[in-house]
Every structure is written in C-alpha cells, then in structure tokens.
Amino acid sequence: MNRIQIKKALLIAAALAVTSTAAAAGKLEIFSWWSGDEAPAKDALIKLYKQKYPGVDVIDATVAGGAGTNAKAVLKTRMLGGTPPDSFQVHAGQELIGTWVVANRMEDLSSLFKAEGWNKVLPQDVIDLISAKGGIWSVPVNVHRSNVMWYNPAKLKAWGVTPPKTWAEFLGTCAKLKAKGVAAPLVVGENWTQQHLWENVMIGTLGPQGWRDLWAGKLKFTDPRVVQGFTNFGKVMDCANKDASGLSWQQASDRIADGTSAFNIMGDWAAGYFTTTKKLAPNTGFGWAPTPDTRGTFVMLADSFGLPKGAKDRTEAINWLKLVGSKQGQDTFNPLKGSIAARTDSDLSKYGTYSKSAAADWKTNKIVGSMVHGAVAPESFTSAFGAIIDQFVASKNAQGAAAAAQQLADRAGIGK
Amino acid sequence: MLLPSVVLLALFVYGFIGRTVYVSLTDWGNDPAQALATNPIIRWVGLANYHDLFTGFLQLRFRQELVNTIFFTLFFILGCLGLGLGLALILDRNPRGEGLWRTIFLFPMSLSFIVTGTIWRWMLQPQGGVNQFPTVLGLPSGTFGWLSSTDSIWKFDWNKLPLLTAAVVGLVLVWLAVRAARTGDRTRTIVAGLCAALLLGWALFVGPNVKLLPAPELHGFNLALIGIIIAAVWQMSGYTMALYLAGLRGIPEELREAARVDGASDVGMYRFVIFPLLAPITLSAMIILGHISLKIFDLVYAMAGPDNTYTSVPALNMYLTSFRQNQFALGAAIGTILLILVAFVIVPYLASAFRSEEGHA
C-alpha cells in the first residue's frame, strides 16, 4: 500500500465514522441487573424505545446477579468515577434515597411526574415512598407484592387445615400440623428470606400505620409493640425448618410443591416460579393468600429508574423515563416480568391469574413498602440487619434484638 | 532497572495500605449522607472504628468472624498437613499407577474456590448429598446440618478475651524464657521472664475485672464451619502432598540406608530421620495455608452465602460493610485487622528467611 492509498483509506474511514454518528441521533445507556429470566421483559422495553426513537443507539449495560448485588457495586464505581450511566435500575424508595439522593447525586423528577400526569395514575402511597427531601426521585416500572403466603391446596385439604388469617391462628395451625407429623409447617430459606418473614410478622403485628411510623422514626424499635413483633417472629420461627440457611427461596418453594411443608412466605415472583418452572396451575397446583394479619395491606417493592446528575445523554434518558412510566411501556414489560404495573390503569387482560388478583388488591389496599427489598430502609440498614435476625433466631432475646435494631436505625439515619 | 517497579510497588501496595489505614481512622461512611457525596466531609476519629468492632453492640458478627477465623485456620492447616503428609507417605512407597494417583490428588487444586464451593454446597445440602449416603445401605438418611447448623461448641465469653490473650501470650513468654535459660542467654531469660510475670499477673488480678461488653457474649466453634473446612482441606491437601512428596524424594537414599544399617526400624526412621528433614517444608506450607485461610472469601461466599453469620469470615464482612453498607471507614478497619493478622503469620517467616539468607552470605 503506498502513501496515497493509505490516505484514501483513512479518508474513507473518517467519512464512514461521520455518517455512522450522524445516523444515530444520540446514545442512551441503560444500566440494569435484568439478565436470564428477566431479560426478555427488559428487551421488550428497549425494543419499544427503539421503535419510538429510531435514531438513538441504546447501550444495554446489564450486570448479572440476583437482586443487583453485583450491579450495585459496579454502579458505585461508575458514579464515584464520574461516568454515571444515563439511567439505572434501582429498587424504588429508600434504597435509592438513602444511598444516592442523600449524597446529592440524583435529579429531582417532580416536574416530569407533573408533566406526564403520573401523580394521578400512581397510588399516593407509592408517590410518598419514592419522595424525600421535597422531590420525587425515580420512576417505578413495576410492582411486586411481598406479603403473600403460598401453600399447596391439595395438601392442606389432606391435612384438614385452612390458610390462617392471623398470626395467632397460624400458631394454632402450626401446632395442629406438627401433631400430624409435619416436622416444619413453615419453610424458610437463607437469611434474606428470614428477614422477609420478619417484616411480614412485624407488619401483621404493627399494622400498616405502625409500620410506616417505624420507618419515619416516630415509632422506636424499642417500643413494646415492636418488641412484641420480635417475640411473635420468634414463635413463628419455631414452626420453621432448622436447615434454613442452606436453602434458596426456590428450594424453599419446592417444599411447598412437594408437600414437605405447608406454608411459605415469599414475594409474588414465586408465582412465576410455580407456573413457569414447576408447571403448576394456579389455585390447584399452588394457592396463595395475604400473609396473616395483613389482609387489606399490600407490601410492595418496585423496580424503578432514576436520572443521575451528570448523565451524558440527558434528553434521551428523559425519553426513556417517559416510556418506563407510560401505560404502554408498563403493559409491555410486566406480563413478561411476572409483576404488575405500578399504574392503576393497566390492561389486565394481558396478565396471568395470580397477577390479576394482585392488581385488584393494588388498586384498593393500603400500600406500604418492604424493608428487605429496599423500599423503606436504606441498604446500610438492611444489609446489617441480617446479623440481628441471625442473632435473634439463635437467642430469642426480643429486647436485645430490638435495642440492636434501634441502634442500627440511628446509625443508618432512619427518621432523620 | 529496578526503579520503576519500586515506584509502582510503593504507590500501589504500600501507598494503598497507608491510605486504607488512614481511612480506617476516619468516619467516612458512618453518616450515609456523606458516604457517596461528591466532596464528602471526612473527620478523623482515631481508633473509634476499632473500638466499635471489638466492643460495639452491633458488631457481634465481626467478633464471631474472628473466632471463626481462628478455628478455621487451625483445622484447615492441621487437616491439610495431616492429609497431605499421609498421601505423600503412601505415594512415596511407589504404589502401582503412582502418576495417576498423584494427578488425582493434586487435581482439586486446579479448581477455583468458587467451583469447589459450589460442588461441596451440592454435596452438603441438608437433605441431599452426603446426608443421603446412609440410605444406600438402607439406613435412615443423615440429619446433620452441614452448612446450616447454628449450634456451636467450645464457647467462651468475649469479655474474657483480654484475659485469655494475656494468659496465652504469657505462657508463650514463659516457654521462651525457659528455652533461653537452657541455652544460657541470661538477658533474654530475664526480659522474657519479667514480661511473662507482668502479663500473667495482669491476667490474674486485673483481667477478670475488664468488661468489654455490658452483657456476656458467647462465641464458639460453629458446627456449620465443619463443611467449609472439609471443602477447603479437599482443595488444598493435594498441594501439601506435592510439597511433602518433593521433600521425601529429596531425601537421599544413602541417608535411609545408613539409618537402616544403624538398625532403625521403619517407625524410627520416619521419626528421627525423615520427619525432622521435612520440618522446613511444614513451616512453609503452614505459612501459605495460613494466609489463604485468613483471606478466605470466595469459598465461604459460594458455600454458605454472604449473609450467613454463623459461617462468615472477616474478609466477607469487609466486602459487605464497604460495598453494600457504604461504611468505608469501618470496612477499612476490618481490612487493617486482617492485614495485622496476616502479618502475624508472614513476618516471623520473613524474619527467619532473612536470617538464614544472611547466614548463607
């Protein structure tokens, strides 16, 4: 190749580079942890975005790993390094607020909420959960319910029991089942599923308002009512399997399907597991009810997207958020993800049997946020709270656990 | 020629160690609002983070982890040395298919701890794997909660820690004094003896009154750790086997023959000729295994998960504290404690290595 040829080649390359950037009017980088089972839902959403904004080059930055454990570490590196993604997935509520909003690294989305009319279609309880310091900080794309008790209808019939409606009734049912030779009427799994159970017992004990007060700092953990909640949790744990820490939530659900245990308390992703993986039919293969004492309460967690300060492609990111919050976007995403839309005006014909019942409750129930899934407590609390639960399950010292939890809450800045 | 590497080492190893130690003496991250701020306000708090770790109400998990680390290190090293030596002795007798056996025994080492951990997690499922073995013989299946047990044995009260430490160090000093007296080193005998007397006196008269925590707090050897120790020994004993086998093969045949001519029995030959010659190998194996066990993270993460207090280790807690809870100062403090623990293992080794090097020069 002589020199002229090289020059020509370079010119052509440069020209190509110019045209390719001109063809893509912009770029958008979406950061999430949706991979594997959850990827198709995300892909559908991105496809919809590309249809609406064909010129934009969407970069799908997915970091695999359950509940975003890996993704969150990567996100921290990027945010601290000054190269935030244009928009990133986060559990709605305190997980975002306690980490990034207090550090003053997010943009307030109140004006977007007003312009898009989301204040009217999202339940007020949800708006409250994602608001803090006078702003609204993320756009919820879906809603999961975490206060669901799963059971095996055929087995319950064989044992002659019905799903208990209160925790007191639950303990009675538990004793009855134990007498019939069921070693562990309740199945729990590794640490976070025990925290999940704890919050269900606590919400049942305190009621929705008490639960809200707890996270607003108006009710101390050392309050006798909260201590009572710990005591109740201890009693409920006496009904559970002793090999909990070795089980994933799927393995715990398996014990419902095979009838080793009677009840499991888990979020509604279990519905997807039962229907898709275990091929069970709703209402016959598996059944569900709100966890005891929480009828009329919807404990929610949501995936949402926020807008970090200093996002390189701000306009495209705002378009993305508009899509995420839109009816079309949510109804595209949620039937595939196995969750329900955060909006109350979604098209229910697209959803499965379980989701329809959840969506009906979503419109009428009182809504409170989940602690273990990041809605009401910052990560610094949730992550360290696991040790308190472990300690309590071993010692059954409710006073001590409550005192430790209060100290942890003070340190995490809850109620400030 | 050496300069660039010296500069890089100074910056990326010692510079960052220094930075970590500095961060551990601040309050970075204790206030969530400052943890990830663009320009966080970081205040100097001295040893407060260390104080919190050893006596804080909330740091029970860390204290249990320290105890776990001690038991894990002990059994891991003993297991690897014992099993490795046993395998090496068998292979040293030139059994048939020796090459194949050697490969089989050494193979686990080629796996990463994550893989080992995943395999063993399957095998140690409470309702499967190892616990199902008895059913092959028609017996009821085992019920041991390999990774999920919450029981512990050999419990002691954390409040007694200063007492125990002083007693142990005191006894070591007594031993040193006795040894120095035997070799006739008077100053050494007196210094070690005095220190021992001081420490033991403190342990007897002041120690019992020191209260680290308001209430007794029991820590012990959690039975769930047994599963993790088995997996770790499985992974690393091939390595000690290889070391010992090299050592055994390095012993000249003349030496063995001479021992035989002198009338040594098989047992006697091992006891008085071969094992003393293997002592340096044992020491270097202990150093390598010791630092592996102190920094172990991936195996525990894969086998028992990050949130299992009963099987947790400090390295895991450091990761969670720093990168999940954003408490950078506290995480740095845990990291610094780990560094000190590793130094306890490595520094004596380095010192002896330097000394012998000088001797050769």
TrEMBL record, chain A:
It holds the Pfam family SBP_bac_1. Gene3D superfamilies: Periplasmic binding protein-like II. The keyword Transport applies. Keywords: Signal, Transport. It is found in: Cell envelope. The keyword Cell wall biogenesis/degradation does not apply. Residues 1-24 form the signal peptide. Part of a binding-protein-dependent transport system for a sugar. Belongs to the bacterial solute-binding protein 1 family. This is Probable sugar-binding periplasmic protein.
From TrEMBL, chain B:
It is a multi-pass membrane protein. InterPro entries: ABC_transporter_permease, MetI-like, MetI-like_sf. The chain crosses the membrane at residues 70-91, 103-123, 161-178, 190-208, 220-248, 269-294, 328-351. Keywords: Cell membrane, Membrane, Transmembrane, Transmembrane helix, Transport. It is found in: Cell membrane. It comes from the Bacteria. The keyword ATP-binding does not apply. It holds the Pfam family BPD_transp_1. Residues 66-351 form the ABC transmembrane type-1 domain. The keyword Transmembrane helix applies. Belongs to the binding-protein-dependent transport system permease family. This is Glucose/mannose transport system permease protein. It comes from Deinococcus metallilatus.
